[in-house]
Amino acid sequence: MPKLRSARTPQSDAFLTMDRAKTAAARAGKAIVDLSVGSSDLPPPQEALDALQASLSDPAAHKYCLKSGTMPLLEAACDWYARTYGVRLDPATQALSLVGSQEGLAHLLLAVTDPGDTLLLTDVAYPSYFGAAKVAGLRTALVPLDPATRLADLSAVSPGDAAAATALLLNVPCNPTGAVADEAWWARVLAFAEKHDLLLIHDNPYVHQVFDAPAAVSPLALPGASARVVELFSFAKSWQLGGFRLGFALGCAPALAALEAVKAPIDFNQYLGIQRMGVACLRLPPSVTRDYAAVWERRAAALVDALAAHGWAQPAPRACMYVWARLPDGVAGGDDVAFCEQLVAATGVALAPGRGFGPGGAGHVRFALVRPEGELRAAAAAVPGCLQALPGSFLQQLVTSVPPHLKARLRAVSRKMLRIVDGAHGLRLTAGAAASGGDRGGSGGAGSLPVALRLARPHVAALDLSALASDAPSQQLAAIAALGLPALAELTLGHSQLGLLATVAAFAPRLACLRLVSTSRAPLSDDERAGALNLLAAQLPALGGVRRLELDAQWHRLLAQEPQLAAAVGSLTALRALVMQGDPERPDARWASLSEPIFLAAVAPLTRLTRLAMGTVLADKLSPAAAVAGLAPSLRDLRCFGYDNIWRHGWALEWAAHCSGLTALEVTACDAAPGCFEAIAGLRGLRSLSLQYDVGSAVSSAWLAPLAACAGLTALRLGALVLQPGHAGPGGRSAAVDAEAAALLAARAERLALAPGGAEEGPAGGAAPAPAPPPGAALPALGALRRLHAGLVCKAPIASLSPNLTELIDSGVNLYELGVAFQESEAATARDAFTPPPPRLAALELGDLAALDGHAGWPGLAALPGLRELRLEMRLGAPGGLAAAASLGGGGLARLPGLTKLVLMISRDAAELGDTYNSEEDVLLWRRQADLRVVELRGSRLLGGFMVQPPLLSQLARQLPALECVELTRCHDLSALELAALVASRAVPRVVVRDCGGVRDRDCAVMQTCARGAVVVECAS
């Protein structure tokens, strides 16, 4: 037999194992959520696509491309480097085009080393580094990561390895850890390379994926670095061109000459049209890559928060598109490959096993942030829940280790009274009201909670005791806690369990999150109130390790009234997050406001806060700048609710304006006025803004002009927003803007006249009408805006506000509430709302079904080329109703090519709908949508019609051939029998049930078994 394999051929790795596992899970009916591959789901810049399109018809681009043909790309690369780092390179000798940086690295090692040479490489690194070293025949000396920084610890390199090494290969920002380095660290690395005469190879594909800077530090920009540094750059990550395979190398001229010589017999460079895409990317303004980086930062934060909420706390990355997570002790025996295989088989969520990133990655997994935030949160929720099904998981060991006479009791506890979830970071125990009581009709056993806690004690990561009765066996529970709760990170208590706080905290060294909740909407009695305050005042100051404190609405109200509690909260100076919730039924309640003394006692001392949610602070004497002097440097996320009026004594917006580091701001029940936006224009790092103001108020788009200063603003939520046509000329405001301002002021004046006593309701009586927009105001172009949530009155194209919108939620506007003057002067139609259409709009939500009517302003849905998800609020009794949809050609909603998900929602309690909802008409919304893959009913099984009308169910299967899944969310009127009918019909291969009170987990499991694999039934409650 001929020799068929070289000794330098890389071996099969963990990613091939995962690829097989994903294929097997898909064949078993799982919907794969692939977070294992760092392939961006974001669209490339349009300028790059336009450059490629133009090249397709250019005959000059169809030929082989020699070195001279790459010069436009190399010149653009050197220009980009000079703009970014202030260093000018020679494109002829210090730059080289690559067919992706991965190809460039493999060939560079062949060009500058000989077989047997030593390469210094971190023990956690991108997998292709190990393969490239193997192909080059190199010996790798692995450098460990510093646990604190997750960067290479060069002090750990042995003198022998340092002397033998030829090159040092690094990747910062790091895949998979997300670590970043400053210039001082790179200076130490360069000194190390000079000391040992090493070539420093820096793979830098994530150069623009740093969250707190325009670009990562480049070692090539350091003095003298060009003599021994080669940096590899890629268009795959920073510009989303992964599939086009394009990159470039900069730096040491002799090394690049050797690389060019190796590449000469291998390739003729990349297709010229793709090179032109790169040129277009390199010439784009920095705001483009900052927008992309903001997406990755939001997704990372969403995933980290969701994992922490489910008991798996992980540090947030500072860059890149990944979250690197260590498996908790004991999970899957520390075998990350086995864990990932079992996870995808159980849930469809695919992660990258840490072992694939080198020996230092064993026991870790990598999440790639390549799905929207909602899907990442859902994946995070699925991970802990699946662990109870993994072989060797603690819950199975727990059940099998219980003596036979306790097995039945523990199973009853876990099913009826004590929710036990084997999370990735340990068990989550949630006690029911009867979990501690005696036998009542066979529903458990006396002291069942202490039994379970004693057995599970070393592994409990989250403990919720808020629902326990006041006669719970506190002494027993305290005695068990005193044995130690080494994994406990999250504790939830009601007022009757506060006596346990000190004991639990004393024996839970990892306790980081404390939640105080009320189990009843009734206020506490005087005795209960006094007892709770005394307990907290005595115990809270001792909780020095707590980083997050959450208070529900009643506890928030108590804090606003009790200086004793405020002082106790203010003693937790290590807090990073203080979340005080409001009453969802009373968003503008006066009690949500904190007095100045309460604020100074409870909040002002917490100088490490990064997140704060609270009622509005009413401070007449204390200046905002003085109040937030200690908070402003660290605060990133602020939510204030309760009434706010910046023209009188309101405080939230003025205060927020002094917190220059804010990235997210939400103010509820504020007063609509141009000053709202002027006050926050200085928050240049703001990425998410939500202002909810009085019913009957509207914001003119002209007022948004100051927000143009917030270059990274990607999410905006307002109440009613009037999109105004026209731009101001050099002479001042346009006539249209003047008319808009007049109409809004007239509407507001009318409401003032109609209010009792001629004054509008609010904290301090009437308010003066808002002033007109300032001279020169015009419709701003918020180019970074991706998500807009508002009740829209469209008299200008939506794309003129932001051409880059990807999600639009129109919550609907009651024109009557805006006043008669507004209706008569401004209630024009908006037939041109989508002319031109927002080219990137992928998700659209309409809060009023009547908006589908061509006369209501949304006739252009079919013109949205990228629309993939449509969400509709089905309002009973609304003018138009489904008749609006029926009026569209008599056959319902026109086909929307490419629409893959349709969500029908209703906010009314399903129990109230009864026979008032005509579900047969809903077929008009989906019958023509042949590309639909997912239909979600949210709020009632009456929506869509097919759950209650058998003929429509058969029609669903015929007319939606691509349908893959029906999702039922919070359909409390759904019965197990109706769900069984859907499964038995085989109309859809997958059904997901979420929080539907009439269907239990057991019902879904039985239906899954009966379907014999033809239909997958998932219960995600």
What's the quaternary structure here? single chain
**Mean pLDDT across all amino acids:** 78
> Structural class from helices and strands?
alpha/beta
The tally of beta strands, per DSSP, is: 36
Q: Which term fits the overall shape?
A: globular
**Contiguous uncertain segments of 5+ residues:** 387-426, 433-448, 644-650, 727-738, 744-778, 819-831, 853-859, 877-889
Percentage of β-strand residues: 15-25%
Our Rg estimate from Cα atoms comes to 31 Å
Contiguous helical run count: 33
Q: Biggest β-sheet, characterized?
A: 22 strands, mixed
Amino- and carboxy-terminal Cα gap: 58 Å
* Fraction of helical residues: 25-40%
Map the helices and strands.
Elements: H1 14-27, E1 33-34, H2 46-56, H3 71-85, E2 95-98, H4 101-112, E3 118-122, H5 127-135, E4 139-143, H6 159-164, E5 165-170, H7 183-195, E6 199-203, E7 229-234, H8 235-238, E8 247-251, H9 253-263, H10 272-282, H11 286-309, E9 322-326, H12 336-347, E10 349-350, E11 352-353, E12 364-368, H13 373-386, H14 394-401, H15 404-417, E13 418-423, E14 426-431, H16 448-456, E15 460-464, H17 474-481, E16 490-493, H18 501-506, E17 513-516, H19 526-539, E18 548-551, H20 553-561, H21 563-570, E19 577-580, E20 594-595, H22 596-602, E21 611-615, E22 617-618, H23 624-627, E23 637-641, H24 652-656, E24 664-670, H25 674-679, E25 688-693, E26 699-700, E27 715-723, H26 735-754, E28 787-794, E29 807-810, H27 820-826, E30 843-846, E31 869-873, H28 881-886, E32 901-905, H29 910-913, H30 923-926, E33 934-938, H31 950-959, E34 965-969, H32 976-985, E35 990-994, H33 1001-1010, E36 1016-1019
Parallel strand pairs: 1-10, 3-4, 3-5, 5-6, 6-7, 14-15, 15-16, 16-17, 17-18, 18-19, 19-21, 20-22, 21-23, 23-24, 24-25, 25-27, 26-27, 27-28, 28-29, 29-30, 30-31, 31-32, 32-33, 33-34, 34-35, 35-36
Antiparallel strand pairs: 2-8, 7-8, 9-12, 11-12, 13-14
Helix pairs in contact: 1-12, 2-10, 3-10, 4-5, 4-9, 11-13, 16-17, 19-21, 20-21, 21-22, 26-27
